[in-house]
């Protein structure tokens, strides 16, 4: 932060920190009482703390600077976008393009141009919530699934680191103050250094509604409703200590309708609260000061815009209201001054949603999401009408009386989380441009320390009432930073305080210091001390420790005030006159609480625990120091193992007490589920454990009861829970073994007379055939159904196959056949179904006709079974036979017909005679056939017997024919 200075020379006091009440320069003597009345607790009054930031001149130094309202031109429509001031008059822009679910962020320059815009897809399970800048780095507040992510990069966009905090939920608010990253969300708050290391992690008291969490320069504010009529306000300082705990009684029920609160520049908080008034739900604007006291609480008539934005700057609040009308809604911007009065009401020339308003110089930037695009609009306390902003009729506001009072809430430590480095996101470009809607000027304001009338109203510097200047310029500002310790010294107490000078000048001199028996700012109280002075010199921005004695006091609060005399009228108010050597008396008060009763140390009775159970041990409050057997210095102790635990305590006057507690482990009978199991896939194993012990069985997946069926591989843990919630467990590992595979054919056909060998190749398996054979190879030559089983010690699989004997085709050709030369012969087979044939002649029929001698072979195939046969064809020569075609003879004669025969020939006449010659005595046709095995020939003659006349006629006819 520009213009900040840090105090040095004093040790910060952390809430709940054990402090040594006896400085090294003080010795306890014999005059100290044996019983001490002291129980000290540091309370929460002032916001001053170690390393507080001092801003000598909070006035912004700018005047008549030219800016422009802008309209953003994007490649994708935004669902949301945010804009924040960056360095060199740049704007940091971030948002979410809903059309393709892309997050984007980048830098908008003063002239409306953009540096590179980075974007990444939400498919990477990452989200972008905020984009902020500090010194030479920019920080992206992101998420990775449900977890918080912090990315740090240079101003040039070079990644320094990206860390994910598993266990820190996303959707948190993060701000940078005092070189720390303060984050909060829901019921927790945490602090990181600028390298992303977690310094502390706190849990805030649980509540009934989602709270407002706001980080500020002084710590983290938390506002929540724990009932319909009770509002709580707390603040944790930058060291993680609860400083403020207030309660506000609400006059009307709350609908728990919060939106994000904002920190005030003046050290307080501004938030909205939804209350159900008689006229309906209204959103109350509440502003509290740095001590948690309500400064004002107002609401705008008919305002229902609970999600409309607002922001505070130098005490002024720009408040966006959404007011329903018969025609729709009216969207107005109301400027409240530091007293809560309306300065003006404005409207925008375009109808848009504005749910995020950021500070810019001494004014604000609005994120305007309209139907025709997104706009960036500037507005200042001095804003007049321009192209985007127009005047509007003033709204009516109402005061709602709210006040706060102190209450007691607690916070607790959470484990610090070690972040993990995250893989860098896959980035791509995002096209965006900005067009100027119109130019405006940032109005002039009075600069408090330059001696010039900047705003030209006739008044310069702090004489100008419009300037929120520090009226203590060049003066000392003494601050009571802390009460560091308190000790018993006889009938007095000795207190050590840290006093700092946060002013603009060195301190030299003396001022009074008084201890009171109550809060002098709230009620009439009595002084416990007189004539105490703070003496010496104290340079600006330095601190020192001083020690004072004062009278003992009854149980209650003790308040110390520097620069206050004991005769000042209490309670103090704005008219109380303090020494003018100190410019600001509001930071001069600190308090302690102490109780004169000293508690008795008692850790309680010995305990028995279950195995693995952690016992939270706690010594009583009210002691100055605690030391356990391992030198752990807190009053609370976590015992992780059985054993003897001892704590020694010291009260605020040095008295010691000691107590011990024995933690023993209960003995439970073990659960024994047996050896791990292996099952065959597809099968089930039953796991059951029977016991007579009283309790409940629960498996690790939530299944109750000791019995379960298991068919899936994995580890199964059974826990037995006793009525007092002790548990013993055992685990059984179940493996699922794949069944062996038998790839056997269903049916195997073999030819008669042949065999088939079955080989099972997995040698590591065990086989068992139908006949008890255990070999992996077996030969089959007979028809039938055969069974084999295979086992891998866990699974057994059985399979069967059938052997079918195929008969060979039948071929019955004779060995030889004869045929006559010049003739053809048919070789014929009886055809069989499913049988194919092929001759050596190439023919594929069962019958063939041939006319040449030789060997003829046939192959027959039936289902891959073969048969073959051959036949020899012998060609024979035909016999020779000749008869005269006609033979004439006289009646009464005998004609002898005859043929010549050779060996092996046979003869047969048409008369049935088988002799080579036959006598013929009657006319007719006579045929003879001669055969020799397969060949036969025949001839015919016509025998005619005639009388004499026929003979004479025949002879003459013959002679005439011959003559002619």
Outline the structure in words:
By secondary structure, the protein is an all-beta fold. Helices cover 2% and strands 49% of the residues. It has one helix and 74 strands. The strands form 19 sheets. Strands 2, 27, 28, 29, 30 and 37 form a six-stranded antiparallel beta sheet that branches. Strands 1-44-43-40-41 form a five-stranded antiparallel beta sheet, with no helix packed on it.
Topology:
Blueprint: E1 41-42, E2 65-74, E3 78-85, E4 91-97, E5 102-108, E6 118-121, E7 126-134, E8 137-144, E9 147-154, E10 159-169, E11 173-177, E12 180-185, E13 188-192, E14 198-204, E15 212-216, E16 219-227, E17 230-237, E18 242-249, E19 262-263, E20 269-277, E21 280-288, E22 294-300, E23 310-313, E24 316-325, E25 328-336, E26 342-348, E27 352-353, E28 357-360, E29 363-370, E30 373-379, E31 389-391, E32 397-399, E33 404-406, E34 411-413, E35 420-421, E36 428-429, E37 432-442, E38 478-489, E39 492-501, E40 507-516, E41 533-538, E42 542-551, E43 556-562, E44 589-594, E45 607-609, E46 615-618, E47 625-628, E48 636-639, E49 643-650, E50 656-665, E51 677-680, E52 685-687, E53 696-699, E54 708-710, E55 714-721, E56 727-737, E57 747-751, E58 756-759, E59 766-769, E60 777-780, E61 784-791, E62 796-806, E63 816-820, E64 825-827, E65 835-839, E66 848-850, E67 854-862, E68 865-876, E69 886-890, E70 895-898, E71 906-909, E72 917-920, E73 924-932, E74 935-946, H1 948-963
Parallel strand pairs: 45-50, 51-56, 57-62, 63-68, 69-74
Antiparallel strand pairs: 1-44, 2-30, 2-37, 3-4, 4-5, 5-6, 6-36, 7-8, 8-9, 9-10, 10-35, 11-12, 12-13, 13-14, 14-34, 15-16, 16-17, 17-18, 18-33, 19-20, 20-21, 21-22, 22-32, 23-24, 24-25, 25-26, 26-31, 27-29, 28-29, 29-30, 38-39, 39-42, 40-41, 40-43, 43-44, 46-48, 47-49, 49-50, 52-54, 53-55, ...
